[in-house]
Amino acid sequence: VPHSGSSMNRKKDKGFEICINNINFQRKSVIGYVELTIFPTVMNLNRIKLNSKQCRIYRVRVNDLEAPFIYNDPTLEVCHHESKQRNLNYFSSAYTAAVSAVDPDAGNGELSIKVPSELWKQGDEMKVMKVYIEFSLDQPKGGLHFVVPDVDGSMAERAAHVFSFGNQNSTRFWFPCVDSYSELCTWKLEFTVDASMVAVSCGDLVETVYTHDMRKKTFHYMLPIPTAAPNISLAVGPFEILVDPYMHEVTHFCLPQLLPLLKQTMSYLHEIFEFYEEILTCRYPYSCFKTVFVDEAYVQVSSYASMSIFSTNLLHSGMIIDQTPVTRRCLAQALAQQFFGCFISRMSWSDEWVLKGISGYIYGLYLKKTFGVNEYRHWIKEELDKIVEYELKMGGVLLHPTFSGGKEKDNPTPHLHFSIRHPHTLSWEYYKMFQCKAHLVMRLIENRISMEFMLQVFNKLLSLASTASSQKYQSHMWSQMLVSTSGFLKSISNVSGKDIGPLIKQWVDQSGVVKFFGSFAFNRKRNVLELEIRQDYTSSGTQKYVGPIKVTVQELDGSFNHTLQIEENSLKHDIPCHSKSRRNKKKKIPLMNGEEVDMDLSAMDADSPLLWIRIDPDMSILRKVEFEQADFMWQYQLRFERDVVAQEEAISALEIFPTPASRLALTDILEQDQCFYKVRIQACFCLAKIANSMMSTWTGPPAMKSLFTRMFCCKSCPNIVKTNNFINFQSYFLQKTMPVAMALLRDVQNLCPKEVLNFILDLIKYNDNRKNKFSDNYYRAELIDALTNSLTPAISINNEVRTVDNLNTDVRLILEEITRFLNMEKLLPSYRNTITVSCLRAIRMLQKNGHIPSDPSLFKSYAQYGHFVDVRIAALEAVIDYTRGTHFVLTTNFLCLSFSMLGKLGPFSWSGIFFIFQLVCLLQRLYGNCSCHTKGLIVNKRNPPSCLSIQR
Amino acid sequence: MADSVVMGSGSLNSGSRSGSSKTSTSPTDNYQLARRRTLQVVVSSLLTECGFESAEKAAMETLTEMMQSYITEVGRCAKATCEHTARSTPTLSDVVITLVEMGFNVDTLPVYAKRSQRMVITAPPITNASVVPKALIAGQKRTHPTYIPSHFPEFPDPHTYIKTPTFREPVSDYQVVREKAASQRRDVERALTRFMAKTGETESLFKDDISAFPLIAAKPSAIPYLSALLPSELELQTLEETDSSEQDDQTDTENNSSNVSQDDQSADKENVVLPPGGVVPTGKANEENMIDNPYLRPVKKPKVRRKK
């Protein structure tokens, strides 16, 4: 018996055939067989280990000989019942051990097949072995998800469908296979389904043939490109078919009645294709591409070889503004993963960051091209802030972990409560942050070696893989289709000739981000800027940075870049200034981009030529910068710096400077229509904050009111808003946001000013969308959010019971509106029920502030299975918020409530799993960092272990 | 004969007559009853003059009828004679001729009228002239044009034949219009939702007063994504109304072959707003047949069975 160390090379599968003969929607079951062709690579191959979960295996034959087999899934019972230890650490290590025990990359598996002794000799001669396995699947809890709506009619009429899903390599949930991203083989797939259904799977549809009774048809697929089992998927349903009008080899599928939405949604997919093919100078690797939109999808987007499965909730009509960019992003993501993730797979789990990094990076390039540089830079800043916040709070995210031994001591991430050894033991949130960091690091590499070289590297990876894919298995070329960290780095150094070792060491082999504190003083005598940059590298999630950092100084004479060297013990840096303070000469000030502008310099310090200073303006370090400069400098930065990131930084800095000058700067930005709309949106909220801080000295109408009136109300009657016309998206987003921000204003009694509330109520009253070609559902939803924001705690006398009679008059008005909106939604539902969602939040807020009796029953009814998923999430959030608000916040109580609700959420199907995800996220918020083992165990009991990764 | 007269005189308002047989309070009926009564008085006095002391009711009736017939006949004939000579109002001579025609010796009439024992019958009390209830007069009645003789019936009220477009002066004040539209919509919505809430299941935010802010109960649906994703009919309708030509190329890619030129024009315009959405290459319909997509190919029949 070979020992486990060398077991990796015991077998190689070459061809894989899967045939599913029967899919029963009524019973939610599947029957089929698989046939693997195996090349033994060692002598005396007597045991074959495969991955399989929840499948019932009927028989196994090897080269037509019956073979005995053992099935053992250690993740079914992670901790033994007798075990006395009940804590998260114990559970986590037991779970990691269980997952390792069946890890396909280590040659393990749940299904162990004994090769019949007759064939042992054959093994010596390295002959091909064919393993045939018959299996069935009954009510799968993972891997395959059945959606069977409870209405009358045939399964096709009921829009019943089934599709594969899973977290990482979860294909073993629906057929026995080697469930590894590094085991490639060619595929032949056959699916026999009802004649009214379509089976969509990976590869080319060769033919569709009726069965003899003509009641079913069989879809034959061939996938000649070597593909790993986790990249295989299936979707069966009564789909409507749309052939892409621009690319006939691309086919789109959606559920019945949604075809018009599909046409609209898919009308720009070809642009994304063109973009990627152009930058990668490489054709799309598969001969066809399929998109399937399914209900109750696991995630918004999941990519498989030559097909992607999307949530049906991404579909939208041409009247919807807000969803359009979101959906386009999802499509772009899916397509990027087709190149890196599906076509090019990974050597091992620790190489995952390369794939996620590259696909995320080229997706970023698409964003830059489609939505513009401002949007791109804004996105990068957002992602950077996200990862920094996560790492500082939860500890570092390690992109490329190395595991020397199997011992607990060698755990590279001891700060985490889970193991990062396997994708399945990971926290869901951590994995999200992992992907985020991966693409940011790719961007850092791009900064170092230039985009041109970067794209050349990608092209090289793709062309090698594509040459390899057309080779026969025997040529041993297929490993070219697997990316590894070392291969990728070698490729970079070959193409660019640059050494990026330090960068990789800093960000890839090491976890944590950098935390800078900056301050400065101007030395007038020497005309030097004395900059001090300190670091915090002792807190959790931080690391020490040594190396270059760019500092941009805007002076009166222009903008100057300085590269400083951050070294071990030097905190202070002297930067010589170019200009003398000479404010009397009237001269235009040159900016970074060459523009020359007039500035009112009266706010400046007379002795200093410095307008503003920026540290690491290009975000070429994964860092958080806390920089101190005077309020007028932030104001100049906001007004005159053209980079959106700088503007956003200035806005967040101005929050602590509630002065008339800040107010003016923010108002000016709000009014500038050349300014990026997301900056203006941020300015709204900042303005509301400083208005509240300036309450006693504030003059004039409430903040933003006159501005809103000027921009969106009628000239003749300024109290009435114009009829909606959302043709200009920038002003649409501003129109949506301003009332929400205004509602945050408070007067001396800490109430929302009457004037503002009436203003919002008038906006609702006079809202008129009849002449608009776009839907106003998001706008109306935000107006309700504005009402929610205007609420303040009720003044309660002796804890009186809330009744209709003692309702505050303002609250009565608000409640009238909410009631009407919520009721109208039943008759004329809005897109994605945005209005119901906002109404539920508003009602919860009314309850929370003590205006109406606190009662979760309404939310419970909206949380039921059968409501739109956004509504259910909002309702569940409200229920959980209710539980938190009351005094008896006891773990058990809460869990009983939430999980008994889950029980009522219908058959414990996939939607249930989905809710566990949501709940767990909420739990996380509720409990902070405290570890509570019951949570994990409850999730575990109810859920297949694949989903346990998010327990916490 | 008498009937015909009655009918004749009543023919103008026969409608009211037939309908009022029971109530018999219409002015025409009253008039006829009064006349009949007067005639009866006349007949009775004549009989008294001739020396009768009493008469049977039937005889009285008969005599009255005869009297009435005679007088009616005189009137009818006189009118006929008058019209015969192209006039419209009978004169004395017409009556005389009539009487002569009927074989009455006209010369005896003055003597008979001046006889000594004749009884004088008081004129029937003039009941308040049965006022024809004034029809609603709308506008000025038109006078006859010169070529229509004045005895012709008058024009009916103008409202019966003249089209008068009635409209209120349009409210031109923008503020008022918006105000009205807004409150109207709000009222309709509120009434509708209240009605729905009253007729169906509801949920309430207040335990003490369930009817205060009734919320229509949330009902789970089997396929929730349909109503959440598809635009409502109202929205689609609004879309069509707003600008059909502009929307065409967005929502309806099917009809494009027919309005190609329009498409090309609006394509640029649309590009500004959204990347080219539904603008599909022209002649798509033809192409569709040539598209070789495996999902469009016909399903094959099972081969084995065929051979057998």
How would you explain this protein's 3D organization?
The complex is a heterodimer of chains A (952) and B (308). Chain A is an alpha+beta fold and 952 residues long. Chain A has 25 helices and 31 strands. A two-stranded antiparallel ribbon of chain B has the order 1-2. Chain B contains 13 helices and two strands, in the order αααααααββαααααα. Chain B is elongated, with a radius of gyration of 44 Å. The model of chain B is unreliable at 1-24 and 244-285 (pLDDT under 50). Chain B has helices spanning 2-10, 14-19, 27-50, 57-84, 92-101, 108-113, 174-199, 224-229, 233-242, 244-251, 260-273, 284-290, 303-307; strands spanning 202-203, 215-216. Chain B is an all-alpha fold and 308 residues long. Chains A and B meet through strand 13, helix 3, helix 19 and helix 21 of A and helix 7, strand 2, helix 8, helix 9 and helix 10 of B.
Main sheet: strands, sense, barrel of chain A: 8 strands, mixed
The percentage helix of chain A is 25-40%
Q: How large is the share of residues in beta strands of chain B? A: under 5%
Give the structural class of chain B: mainly alpha
- The radius of gyration computed from the alpha-carbon positions of chain B, rounded to a whole number of angstroms, is 44 Å
Write down the overall mean pLDDT of chain A. 86
**Helix-strand string of chain B:** HHHHHHHEEHHHHHH
Individual helix count of chain B: 13
> How would you sum up the global shape of chain B?
elongated
Q: What assembly state would you assign to the polypeptide chains in this entry? A: heterodimer
Query: How far is the N terminus from the C terminus of chain A?
Result: 39 Å
As laid out across the biggest beta sheet of chain B, the strand order is 1-2
Low-confidence stretches of chain A: 1-10, 887-918, 921-952
For the largest sheet of chain A, list the strands in their spatial order. 5-4-8-2-1-11-14-13
